[in-house]
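Subject: Sanity check before I submit

Could someone independently write out the structure tokens for this chain? I want to compare against mine line by line before I put it in a report. The sequence has 109 residues.
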Amino acid sequence: MLNPPHTIDDERPRLVVRSPGVAFEWLRATAGTGRLDDLRHRHGRNVVVAPSRTPIKAEQLAALINSRYQVLDARLRPALFPVSAARRAIATPGELPNLADYHPQAVMQ
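---
Independent answer below. Compare away.
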């Protein structure tokens, strides 16, 4: 018989999400570092994933966080990262201080 999900040994770091606002502040400080270091660039109004430089959507960002962190609610029960926090981060890439602006080099002909 399988253990309930909250008792399975999980080596991912714990991320306790108390509210979407707190989750956004955590994402603002964390994007571009540690387990989210592949979110390195802003390109215009997009957050792009390295090395492909493809824009990421809020739902994809929340799913990425869910896969890399053991997301828990305030009562330490399994939870999902709030898409609303990811949506705010995607909508305001200038607020993510650890991301650099991406400037593709001009192609020489």
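---
OP: Matches mine. For the report I'm noting this point. The mean pLDDT is 87.
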